Amino acid sequence: MGFTVDATAPDSRARSATLVTPHGAIETPVFMPVGTRGTVRTQTLAQLEQLGAPILLANTYHLWVRPGRAVFEQLGGLHRFMGWSRALLTDSGGFQIFSLPGTRVAEDGAELDGQWLTPESSIAMQTAIGADIMMVLDHCVAAKSSHAEARDAMDRTHRWARRSLAARTTVQQLFGIVQGACVPELRRESAAVVTALPFDGYAIGGLAVGETRAERQDMTELVTDLLPHDRPRYLMGVGTPLDLLEGVHRGVDLFDCILPTALAQQGVAFTSRGRIELDRGVHRLSEVALDPRCDCAACTRHSRAYLHHLVKCKEPLAWQLLATHNLAFYLRLMSDIRTAIRAGTFARFVVEQRPILGAADLDHPPGKHPRKKRGKPTARGAFALHVDPARERASIRHVASGEIMHSVNDPDVEAERIYIDQSRRIAHALARATPLVVWDVGLGAAHNAMALVRRLAGRDVPCTLVSFERDLDALRLAVMHTGAFPHLRHEAPHRLLHAGHYARDGLTWVLREGDFLDHLDAAPRPDVIFYDPFSTKVDGPLWSFATLSRLYAVLAREPRPCELFTYTTSTAVRTALLAAGFHVACGVASGPKAETTIALVHPEPGEHAWLGADWLDRRARSTARWPADGDPAQIERALAAHAQFQVPRG
Questions:
Q1: From the DSSP assignment, how many helices (H) and strands (E) are in the chain?
Q2: Do 506 and 551 contact (CB within 8 A), yes or no?
Q3: At what angle are helices 346-357 and 316-343 packed, to 10 degrees?
Q4: Alpha carbon 619 to chain centroid distance?
Q5: pLDDT class for 388, splitting at 50, 70, 90?
Q6: Residue 280 and residue 308: Cα distance in Å, rounded?
Q7: Is 333 exposed, middle or buried (0-12, 13-18, 19+ CB in 10 A)?
Q8: Active-site annotation, residues
């Protein structure tokens, strides 16, 4: 095994090298077709050999699930199992930790579909597979993750990297992975830590997961400049032909991506005439070849008209032909790149190829006025997007009532001030890493829940967050417009909507869809409640005396204190809370409101500023002091006997 740089390109970081493996020498830069489960979709091994693919990528997690480690240990590894005589690289399962719903990450490893993947079990699986190149298990997060979340994942990746090294028992090459999202200082720190460890090569992970192309290029250039010259560099999961060209230009040696086969299934072909979408009607009568430079079967035996027909009929042959063509295009592009590097003409090659590789069908470009794509919907169910140009942000409007969520206040600031910063239970859990249960009643657009997710990021606090919502259309609408709702640029709410739960580190977030009272008894007893239904007009039953009495009865069964925070200062709601049994206190101001409301169960001495005689005086002058339901006489008796008003308090 070895790696030798054979040539470097003037005016570029590009280099041509030879990577020696037990299954043959590989000329780099190289593209690795993705054989997730030990097969490249639609391609036979004979086709891949004819295309000249010197190395394939196989997926550790999916092969771990089926057929399993024992099969490879008994049958002699994946090379023998699938009949492939050339090199193999295996990823570690790190991307599946990011992409699969319901994944739970802990220090030991990650729980995926009920099974624990650890650095040690990942290396053991890759050893059984017999990969020429193995990857350490890493913790991948979205590229635009917060600084705290990116650091937490990066630090864990470093700890797992050391464990992966310690678990290696063979001479198979092992690559470390640089993480850090799109935070330059984290990328620098990660590169320093990982390159200090004795890896055979280094990968750049955590890209092509939500960042822009410019951000991806900037992070790639930053990291490659910090990696050793005498080790191979691998940009994981990237990308389009233009991405490959730009990656090589910045010093990358190895690439993999599912796009050649995945887009082929959609009728998309990459050609020397740009990216061609064969479902377009312009190809219906075209007798020309798909790509005049290509000698694959799709280009030499068939016309664009025939390929258009296969695509429109959804014939599997279309997928197979276009996948073969796309792989041929990728591999030929890498060959042309290697030739240009060795000839010293790569910088000119980049200038010439950029407009072609980034073009959309040079033979039949979209017209000057292409058909306008349907925009994202601005309404869903009972809700619509409301944009206030003066305040340069969007909100959710309830169409029937006309009421707007957070019509005045910044919802993220309000969420932190009212629901997070005031809570003694949350502060105690953060300070002592003690278990915490939070109920989020009225999920809405998830501002309150995401404020808690942000506050817990990077903290080793076991927390169960239960969100109750009867109508998820507000959140579904908001996640379609993350540009207007930046707090939703996080995997958590998307996974919550998709799978009904989200788990990462110590946080478990569970969705309970339907009527709040139907789920009340089965939910774990909370320490804190974010009580944020839309309004008394839209969600009247949740503000009723009956509901609040039922809630208090459930909470009072256990002697533990519980805090409830809500934005309202309604005299009727405060009266209902008190009559139900809660102690009620003044909360912090929020926007134009001078105060908000805190309700307490089994309060501790001196906890929050309870309402006193002055509030009772104001209430007596109110014309709307009773909730819509309940007997006023009974409520008055309950207030008169309430312990909160029996002892004078300062």
A1: 25, 28
A2: no
A3: 160
A4: 48
A5: low
A6: 8
A7: buried
A8: 91, 256
